[in-house]
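User: I've been going back and forth on whether these two constructs are worth ordering. Before I decide, could you fold them both?

Assistant: Sure. I'll take them in the order you sent them. The first construct and its C-alpha cells:
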Amino acid sequence: MNKYEITTLGRKLDLKNPNNRLIIQLATLVTISALVFYLIITKEISSSFVYGIKAGITIFLLWAIAREMDPDHESAAFIPVILTLPHVIIFGLHPIFPLIWFLLLLRLVNRSTGAKAGIIDSLAILSIGAFLTYQLSWVFGTISALGFFLDGRLSSPYRGHLIPAVLLLLYSGLALIHEITDVVMDMALLKIVAFTVMILLALPLFTNRDTIISIGDRTGERLDEQRIKATQLLAVFSVSAFMLFSTASDGFWPLVWTIPASAGLYKVLLEIKQMRT
C-alpha cells in the first residue's frame, strides 16, 4: 500500500518558506491579541485562552483555504486574513469545524497535494459534511456532494467518490425537506452588497488564462488546471449558497466571502502592476 493512500490531503508546511513563517507568526499574534481582548472583557482566564486559541486556528485555516484558491500566488492568501481580523478578534467568529470541512473539500477537488484523497480524507469530508448538514443546514450536504461529484468526474477521476456524492445529496435533500419552512432567500442588504462585490472581484479568476505553475506537495508534478478552475468555481458557488440560502451560516460566510474576492482582487492588482512595468 502506498503510504499516501490512507490520507493525502495534508499539505506540507515548510518553515523555510517565508509565507509559511509569516502565517505562523501572524496566527500567534492573533491568538495573543484575542486572548488579551477577551480577558479584558470577561476577566475569565480559562475561557480567554480558549478564545485566543480558536482565533489563531481560525486565522490559519482562512489562510490555508485562500491558498487553495490561487496556488500560484500564495501572497494573495494574506488579504482575507487581514480583512477578517476584526471579525475574528473582536466579534469572536471562530467556525473552526466548517472551515476544516471547506479546506478539505477544496483540496479534494484541486488535489493541491498532487494525489487523490485517501480513505481517511474521504470519510472525514463525508462525516463532517453530514454532521454540519444535520446541525446547521442542508447547504453543507449539497456542497459536499458537489465536491465528491467533481472529484469523480474531472481529470484522473476517482469514480468511487460518486457514491458519497449520491448519499450526501439524498441526505441534504431530506434535510431540506425538514427545513423547507425556513428556507427563503436572505435578501439582507449587507449580504447582497457582499455577494455583488464578491462576484465582481472574483471574475478575473475565471477569465485568467495564465498557465498553472504550482506543483503538488507530494508528487512534484504540476497541478491540473481544470481542477484549479473547478475549485475556484466551487468556492464561489459555495459561498454564494451560504450567503443567500443559509441563515445558520451567519458565523461562516462573513469570513469566507473575502477569499474568492481577495483572490480576484490580487489578480487585478498584479495585472495593473505588470502593465505599468
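The second construct, handled the same way:
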Amino acid sequence: MNSDRRNSMRFSVVPSRVKAQLRVGKDTYKAELLDESMAGFAVAIEIPRRRLGEQGFVCESDCPLFGEIARLNLMGHSAYEVQIISIVPREDESASATKSRICLRLGTRVVREIYGEDRNSVGRNLRLMAAMVLAVLFSMYCTAQSFSGQLAAMVPTVELAWDDMLQQWQTLRSGERNWRKEIAHATSHGYVAPNTDEMTKLIDFSRSLPTLHRVEKVMLFQRDSKFLQQLNLTADQMLSVRKISMEAEAAMEQLWLQLKHEKQVFEEQLAILLVELETRILANLSPSQAKMWMHAQFG
C-alpha cells in the first residue's frame, strides 16, 4: 500500500495471526488478519492465479478485486462490510504462493460493522472515537470557533479514490457539469432527477440549514440507524448512497487540509461541495425518501 494513501495509526494484531474469512460476491477466501487501524484492516489471502487473468495485473486498479465491497469475518470476533482499496503481491517469508495460486495483501476500508456479533475491537473503538472527534471539530468550525492546529492529525484518514471526487467537484465549480448520468439513472428509477424543479426546491431548502446539519445528513449513510430503516432503501440504493457518503468524508478532509488557513474560502468551497454531494444522493432517492432525508433531525 502506498505510504501516501495509508498514514493512519496502525496496530499489530494480537495474537499475531488472526484467522479470517473474506467473501467477495459469491467467492469466499480464507484470510489472515495482518493489522488493524482506525480506517480498516490489512489481510492476506490466497487466490487462484486464473482469477487474475492470463496477464495478471500491473496496476492494482486492474485487479478484479479492487474497489469491491466484501464481508470480512474475523474468527471469534466481529464481522465487517469493507471495501478493498489496495492490492499488492505478498512476498515475505510467510507467503505460500504456488504456481496455481498467488498470495495478496489487501488493504480494506471499513464501510460498517455488521451487528449481532462480538463488537469489541481496538479498531472499532478508535473509529468511533475518530467519528466523534470529527463531528465535534465540524461543530466548532461551523459555529465560528477557532480550530486547533492539530486538526489534520485528529481527523481519521479516509482511503478512497479522491482523484475522481476532485474531478467531479472541479467540474461542478466550473458550472459545466450536466448531470447526464445522474439524470438518466434517476429518471429510469423514479428518483429525484437533477435540473428539475423538485431537485431545485430540495437543494434550496438544504441551503437554508446549518452547515453542520448538512454534513451530518451526508454522513448519515455510513452507519445503520432507525432512521435509515424508515427510509426503506433497496440494497442498490444503500450501496450507492453509502459510497457517496464515504467519498464525502475523504473530500471534506482533503478540502480542510488544503484551505484550513483560509476560513472564508473553505466555507465557500464546502458549500459548493455539499450541493454536489446532496444532488448525487437525491438522485438515488425517491421523492418521498428525499423529503424524509431532507427533514432528518439529529440530537
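Notes on the second construct follow. The first strand starts at residue 10 and ends at 12. The domain at 19-114 is CATH 2.40.10 (Thrombin, subunit H).
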